[in-house]
């Protein structure tokens, strides 16, 4: 296997570190003292959606959790641990669920949902080449079931996929609002005293622009506070 890509990344990192050190001599020293991110980004693992780059952010500004199709599940201890740490111990003010256009996970779920042979009374194999109990299919099954409920069975794929992407983000924002971490922050106050707001965005890969879906929620009785992209 070619090692060119690996060597290229290591060389680019060396150049980047030298450039940053030259421009901001104290940058890495300050980074080593700790982090104070303002936002937790829960996004898709897609390589075309690099959170820091598309928001013009520096290291230390965004705490990140990414997975297939930007899911926030109430039984996912990985994501829930990230959320708890970000809110209670890092003091983030914003938690953003970020989907994106041309999402492969959402597209797979749409394809499965539009399949006339879909049987929701059984475990769903969203990726038909894998058994239903495969980890990828178990991960995607809730989104496939949700997609099947959207009434898109006869809609053209190009028209239906953006709907699935946006509805998925909205559903994950709702899940986020129902986590223990967020409900406690809203009802009892966060451990660090900051107000916490949750948001839903979609990144358009074809334009590079983030779209706010206007589903922001925050502590009861307080106006919505826009996240800093």
Automatic annotation (TrEMBL):
Its EC number is 4.2.1.1. InterPro entries: Carbonic_anhydrase, Carbonic_anhydrase_sf. CDD domains: beta_CA_cladeA. Keywords: Lyase, Metal-binding, Zinc. This is Carbonic anhydrase. It is an enzyme of class 4 (lyase). Reversible hydration of carbon dioxide. Gene3D superfamilies: Carbonic anhydrase (3.40.1050.10). Belongs to the beta-class carbonic anhydrase family. It catalyses: hydrogencarbonate + H(+) = CO2 + H2O. Its cofactor is Zn(2+). The lineage of its organism: Eukaryota, Fungi, Dikarya, Basidiomycota, Agaricomycotina. The keyword Metal-binding applies. GO terms for molecular function: carbonate dehydratase activity; zinc ion binding. Binds 1 zinc ion per subunit. Zn(2+) binds at residues 44, 46, 100, 103. GO terms for biological process: cellular response to carbon dioxide; cellular response to oxidative stress.
């Amino acid at each position: 296997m070619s090692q060119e890509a690996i060597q290229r990344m290591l060389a680019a990192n060396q150049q980047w570190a030298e450039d940053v050190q030259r421009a901001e001599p104290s940058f890495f020293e300050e980074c080593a003292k700790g982090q104070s991110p303002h936002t937790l980004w829960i996004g898709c693992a897609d390589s075309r959606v690099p959170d820091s780059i598309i928001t013009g952010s520096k290291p230390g500004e965004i705490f990140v959790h990414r997975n297939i199709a930007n899911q926030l599940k109430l039984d996912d201890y990985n994501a829930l641990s990230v959320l708890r740490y970000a809110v209670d111990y890092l003091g983030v003010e914003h938690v953003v669920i970020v989907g994106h256009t041309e999402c492969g996970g959402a597209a797979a779920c749409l394809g499965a949902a539009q399949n006339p042979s879909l049987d929701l009374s059984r475990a769903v194999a969203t990726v038909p080449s894998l058994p239903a109990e495969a980890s990828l299919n178990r991960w995607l099954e809730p989104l496939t079931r949700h997609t099947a409920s959207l009434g898109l069975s006869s809609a053209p794929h190009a028209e239906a996929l953006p709907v699935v992407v946006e509805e998925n983000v909205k559903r994950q924002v709702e899940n986020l609002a129902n986590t223990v971490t967020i409900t406690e922050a809203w009802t009892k106050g966060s451990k660090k005293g900051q107000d916490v707001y949750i948001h839903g965005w979609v990144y358009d890969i074809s334009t590079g622009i983030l779209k706010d879906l206007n589903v922001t929620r925050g502590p009861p009785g307080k106006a919505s506070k826009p996240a800093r992209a």
